[in-house]
Amino acid sequence: MTKFRFKKIDFKNYNWGKLGLELLVVFLGVTGGFVLNNWREEQQQLRTEQNYLQGFVQDVSDNMSELKRLTEADSLWLEGASIKAKALRDHELHVDSADVLMKSIISIYKFEPHTGTYTDITNSGNLNLIRNLELRTKIVDYQQSVEGVEFVDSHFYQFFNDYITPFVFEEFDVLNGKFLDEEVYGSIKFKNIFAGYLAMVQQRRMAYIDLLDKSVAFKIELEKRVVQN
User: Fold this and answer.
1) What is the residue range of 100's domain?
2) DSSP conformation class of 179
3) Which of 26, 129, 154, 160 might form a disulfide with 164, Cβ 3.0–4.6 angstroms?
């Protein structure tokens, strides 16, 4: 039967310095690879975060421009409508003024918010890339404020569809811009519709102003976090 003999390792003559150096090189190489990879990932995340922040700044800027335009339009309409409301209440509204008032009522519009960046960052699950928790919370809060204005607008449109549209089909010649019967604009029905529409515009204007103020503050906060190239 063959006997196996194991060669005895002479640890005394082994080059421990060389082995240690080789192990150190391997360790540094592996560790360096991890560190470099983590650094690259972090830099990519930082670039992505900056892209999102710049997108938010652009969206908010666009919203501000739109809100300023709509707020000014509502303010001008309310200014003219308040005069006509007094004349209507005092039974002094002229038929031509009533026709103009009705045409202004059927010209409805609403706020179309720019929310592409928020949609992108939430759909991709990247909201946590915004490292600052306070800023991340403000992003969500701002979106909720935008949705609040959209709710006001949808409520306005519902009122318009339920009351204004049927009244127009029955009582107003849209092509010629005239009431079918001059006595209609002095009726309780028209006064109530006008009063409801007036209240809706006032409510919408206040919602626009509130969101505009929040947009200004939010943009300032965002710009603090954007790295200028």
Assistant:
1) 15-225
2) E
3) 160
